């Protein structure tokens, strides 16, 4: 007799939990504990071992699918309807430095009145906001109106002294060892402000069909009429610009360093080989690469007028140099072994992405490789409905067996969130997009590049896998 979906999902969870427990026993590394705010990666088996990461992903996918299957449908849909409210609650806690205050309070937590006092906000209201989050497992209500950090809320800890956060709020995220809190703060603030107006933009007969960045929902909502990165050049945006640079580092660090280090066989390049980090921002990818491979010469290119290099090593070290360059103009480096683009192609609609890739193709030698690191969006439909040539290209991407959605559903939807959904950034803010592999292949081919390989990076979140292309 065929098993019900409910039983299949429950079996998947039981089997994968058994795998996690076995690996935990064998390695002596603990299982996760939601109440424990100690985030040291090495302290959790499901973040350190490839088989455990795999099992954890199945558990999360099946668990979230079970919720979709078993919650009253209208309640489930309303959880999505209220998604913006949950994000707004989280923003209050981030801006009020609740996590850092609770870090000092320890496991017994602190009454919401005391947390609120430092930001001069209403303690009763903050308690309701924190309970909303605690009900979604972010913070723990240890006694009525008294909250403590847990495994999830601790991710927002800048690790700075609370007194410093309140005396120097503009530099809250500067110089932190973990840039994730900056990514959360940035996304909850500027990136989220326009999301609810997506429909109005899509319905607009002109903006809805436009590929121009300035026709994004974000531009229209905030009344900004220059491209996002140009808007950043303006002196009043200095604080946001600094935060953005750190936030990008935070997004990137959600994936293991191997996303960069295994994207290409860097060690195989000869001494002095040139790697160009195109649109390299504050140079966080370039620095990682340079530190691991001292034989490479890394050039970080970005708009000179709009970007502050925050890591002095980028300028001081002879190995990594910073070069002002607009990637919509011809590429000046003609001897690059690798053109490296992380979080670049996804920022632009096809006509613009084509200009960038075409300029790089124009400067490529026969031996140049193009490495693109963006999310590769998987379909949510059954595998057998995907055209075979596209499916073949997707082989390096992880696929779940039924009854799970092939893309692991809500447990693996970060790329989709970045693209259009929960925080519809690319579509809402930049009028650009994350792409699926077929789309990327076509885009590359239209600029004279041949997609060579999608590189499988174990343990990378979502479908954030690098791809390599060579001159066609
Ligand atoms: C999302 S950030 C990615 C930064 C970096 N690649 C990383 O992964 O950390 C996009 C970068 O593109 C740069 N950018 C935007 N327009 C540009 C242009 N026309 N020429 C060069 N860089 C540009 C921005 O200044 C920003 O640093």
TrEMBL record:
InterPro entries: COMT-like, COMT_C, Peptidase_S8_Ser-AS, SAM-dependent_MTases_sf, WH-like_DNA-bd_sf, WH_DNA-bd_sf. GO terms for molecular function: O-methyltransferase activity; serine-type peptidase activity. Keywords: Hydrolase, Methyltransferase, Protease, S-adenosyl-L-methionine, Serine protease, Transferase. This is S-adenosyl-L-methionine-dependent methyltransferase. It comes from the Eukaryota. The keyword Calcium does not apply. GO terms for biological process: methylation; proteolysis. Residues 201-380 form the O-methyltransferase C-terminal domain. The lineage of its organism: Eukaryota, Fungi, Dikarya, Basidiomycota, Agaricomycotina.
């Amino acid at each position: 007799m065929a098993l019900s979906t409910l039983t299949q999902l429950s079996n998947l969870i039981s089997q994968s939990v058994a795998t996690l427990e076995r690996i935990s026993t064998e390695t002596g590394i603990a299982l996760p504990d939601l109440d424990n705010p100690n985030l040291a990666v090495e302290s959790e088996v499901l973040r350190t071992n490839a088989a455990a990461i795999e099992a954890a992903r199945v558990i999360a996918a099946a668990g979230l699918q079970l919720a979709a299957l078993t919650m009253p449908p209208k309640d489930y849909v309303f959880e999505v309807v209220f998604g913006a409210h949950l994000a707004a609650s989280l923003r209050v806690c981030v801006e009020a430095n609740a996590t850092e205050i609770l870090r000092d309070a320890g496991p017994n937590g602190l009454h919401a009145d005391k947390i609120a006092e430092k930001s001069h906000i209403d303690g009763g209201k903050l308690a309701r906001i924190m309970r909303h989050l605690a009900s979604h497992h972010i913070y723990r209500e240890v006694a009525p109106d008294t909250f403590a950090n847990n495994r999830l809320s601790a991710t927002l800890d800048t690790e700075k002294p609370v007194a410093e956060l309140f005396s120097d709020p503009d530099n809250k995220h500067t110089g932190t060892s973990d840039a994730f809190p900056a990514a959360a703060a940035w996304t909850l603030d500027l990136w989220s402000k326009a999301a609810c107006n997506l429909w109005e933009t899509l319905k607009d007969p002109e903006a809805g069909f436009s590929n121009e960045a300035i026709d994004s929902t974000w531009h229209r909502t905030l009344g900004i009429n220059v491209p996002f990165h140009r808007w950043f050049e303006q002196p009043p945006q200095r604080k946001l610009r600094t935060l953005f640079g750190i936030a990008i580092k935070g997004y990137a660090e959600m994936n293991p360093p191997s996303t960069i280090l295994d994207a290409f066989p860097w060690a195989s390049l000869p001494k002095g080989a040139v790697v160009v980090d195109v649109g390299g921002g504050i140079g966080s990818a370039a620095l990682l690469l340079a530190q691991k491979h001292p034989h490479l010469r890394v050039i970080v290119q970005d708009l000179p007028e709009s970007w502050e290099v925050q890591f002095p090593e980028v300028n001081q070290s002879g190995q990594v140099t910073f070069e002002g360059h607009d990637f919509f103009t011809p590429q000046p480096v003609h001897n690059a072994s690798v053109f490296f683009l992380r979080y670049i192609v996804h920022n632009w609609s096809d006509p613009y992405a084509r200009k960038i890739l075409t300029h790089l193709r124009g400067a490529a030698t026969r031996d140049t490789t193009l490495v693109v690191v963006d999310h590769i969006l998987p379909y949510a439909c059954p595998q057998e409905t995907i055209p075979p040539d596209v499916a073949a290209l997707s082989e390096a991407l992880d696929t779940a067996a039924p009854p799970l959605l092939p893309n692991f559903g809500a447990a693996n939807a970060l790329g989709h969130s970045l693209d259009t959904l929960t925080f519809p950034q690319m579509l809402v803010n930049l009028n650009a997009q994350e792409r699926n592999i077929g789309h990327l292949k076509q885009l590359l081919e239209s600029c004279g590049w041949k997609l060579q390989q999608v590189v499988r990076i174990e343990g990378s979140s979502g479908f954030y896998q690098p791809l390599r292309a060579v001159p066609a």
